[in-house]
Amino acid sequence: MTDAIAHHPTDETLAAFASGTLDEARGLVVSMHLSLCAACSRKVEGYEAIGGELLEQATPLSMEPGALRNVLRLIEEDFAAPETGPKQPLDRYQLGPWRWVGPGVRQRSVSVPEVSNIKVFMLKAAPGTRLPYHRHAGYEWTCVLEGAFEHQFGRYGPGDFDEADETMEHKPTVCDGDPCICIVALQGNIVLQSRLGRIIQPLLRL
């Protein structure tokens, strides 16, 4: 984990993650941030503790026949599973090959089931790359894994979280140094704003 993270998910987003109400795509991107950010991990633990206290105060419901037996079986299976070291959020997903999407930019898919026109992918851009000026048809949640980029809202380095929606327009530029690698959950497509951008939009598949 790093102490240099400057951009974090909102408290509302962290609370939604803790309560399990985020879709899998956004949950994965938040998980990647949490794997790098001790401060937000502590916040999520706090929200989960509050949820546990509320659950304890709730009126108990009768269990279905066999429910206890099923829970005990799952616990036994969990303990029987071999330990293979710490798991990273991406470990349970299949990653596609890197493919070219534009000068200096490559993309690889992440096998999160696509629901309601939401997709998850990794983006790798070379230092100095200027991404096209664009807005979004829905939300775009990004966690930086390596390198850095910047736009009008600041500089985003490893662990930083960028939470954009359809009201945001930006033109990210990759900072000098290392290539920038991010994981992105995108609802709908990006909408390129320039005349040339609108011409090449169908080729990008973003």
UniProtKB/TrEMBL annotation:
<dbReference type="InterPro" id="IPR041916">
    <property type="entry name" value="Anti_sigma_zinc_sf"/>
</dbReference>
<dbReference type="InterPro" id="IPR011051">
    <property type="entry name" value="RmlC_Cupin_sf"/>
</dbReference>
<dbReference type="InterPro" id="IPR012807">
    <property type="entry name" value="Anti-sigma_ChrR"/>
</dbReference>
<feature type="domain" description="ChrR-like cupin">
    <location>
        <begin position="97"/>
        <end position="186"/>
    </location>
</feature>
<dbReference type="Pfam" id="PF12973">
    <property type="entry name" value="Cupin_7"/>
</dbReference>
<protein>
    <submittedName>
        <fullName>Anti-sigma factor</fullName>
    </submittedName>
</protein>
<dbReference type="InterPro" id="IPR014710">
    <property type="entry name" value="RmlC-like_jellyroll"/>
</dbReference>
<dbReference type="InterPro" id="IPR025979">
    <property type="entry name" value="ChrR-like_cupin_dom"/>
</dbReference>
